[in-house]
Amino acid sequence: MRALAISDIHGCYLTFRHLVEDVVALSKDDSLFLLGDYIDRGPCSAELVEYIIGLSQSGFNVTCLMGNHERMLLDAMLSRGYLTNWLINSGDDTLSSYEALYGDSNAYFGAIPHHHITFYNSLKLYALVDDFVLVHGFVDVDSPNPLGNEQAILWARPKPIPHNCLTGKTVIHGHTPRSIEQIRTDIGSAATRYIGIDAGCVYAGIHAGAGNLCCLNLSAMELYSVPKMD
């Protein structure tokens, strides 16, 4: 059995399917951990979320964490002020994907089906896997309870982890795009206390070194990656 981690898919549905089905060859004996940011920026957020839900319904062992973009969507559903912030951060791309898949609606969230809203509300903030702590953003390294700060878990950028914080654990996170070369360097470093696995898939052709979706096999510290397809 493998423990596999993927982050920051951002609506790149075809890329994710290729990585999971063809490259990783996910099986029902594996545990797949998705570290958030399924939506926004990319073209197919609705299709991606439907596919992820389908994996769980088909018997695959999938644990889904919340990213800051899912938090923005949920906040936007509660407040007009938050709605403006989400739309500025590419929420309109997500709404467009829902309208294309499920039909147009006069209401902002009318095209999002109930089972997708249930999915967003069910997302976890972190997961513990053997000697790893999995989060979207980072942990609060300045707190005696580094996993008790939702803002940090969803939004924080990585910084050095004190020796007395999460002793014996390595943090696996997304949210901060890095090149495949940087990710591989950290995987190979015995001194690394955190590894960011966001390879900037949705930023292909926009940022140098970006444009890949990767999957880290935590069981063997092996990295799979594919270039953006959609």
Short description:
The protein is of the alpha/beta class. The chain has 7 helices and 9 strands; from the N terminus they run βαβαβαααββαβαβββ.
Description:
By secondary structure, this protein is an alpha/beta fold. The protein has a single domain (about 5-225), classed as Metallo-dependent phosphatases (Purple Acid Phosphatase, chain A, domain 2). About 35% of the residues lie in helices and about 15% in strands. It has 7 helices and 9 strands. The chain has helices spanning about 15-25, 45-55, 70-75, 80-100, 115-120, 150-155, 180-185; strands at about 5, 30-35, 60-65, 125-130, 130-135, 170-175, 195, 210-215, 220-225. It has a 5-stranded mixed beta sheet, with helices on both faces. A 4-stranded mixed beta sheet has the order 4-5-6-7. The mean pLDDT is about 95.
| CATH homology superfamily name | Metallo-dependent phosphatases
Secondary structure class reads: alpha/beta
Approximate helicity band: 25-40%
CATH class: Alpha Beta
Label the overall shape: globular
Count of helix runs: 7
Strand content: 15-25%
Oligomer: single chain
Q: From N to C, what is the helix and strand string?
A: EHEHEHHHEEHEHEEE
Report low-confidence residues grouped into runs of 5 or more: none
Q: Strand order, biggest sheet?
A: 3-2-1-8-9
**Total strand count, please?**
9
Radius of gyration, in Å, reads 17 Å
- Main sheet: strands, sense, barrel: 5 strands, mixed
Secondary structure blueprint with pairings:
Blueprint: E1 3-6, H1 13-23, E2 31-34, H2 45-57, E3 61-64, H3 68-76, H4 80-102, H5 114-122, E4 127-129, E5 132-134, H6 150-155, E6 170-173, H7 180-187, E7 194-196, E8 212-217, E9 222-227
Parallel strand pairs: 1-2, 2-3, 5-6, 6-7
Antiparallel strand pairs: 1-8, 4-5, 8-9
Helix pairs in contact: 1-2, 3-4
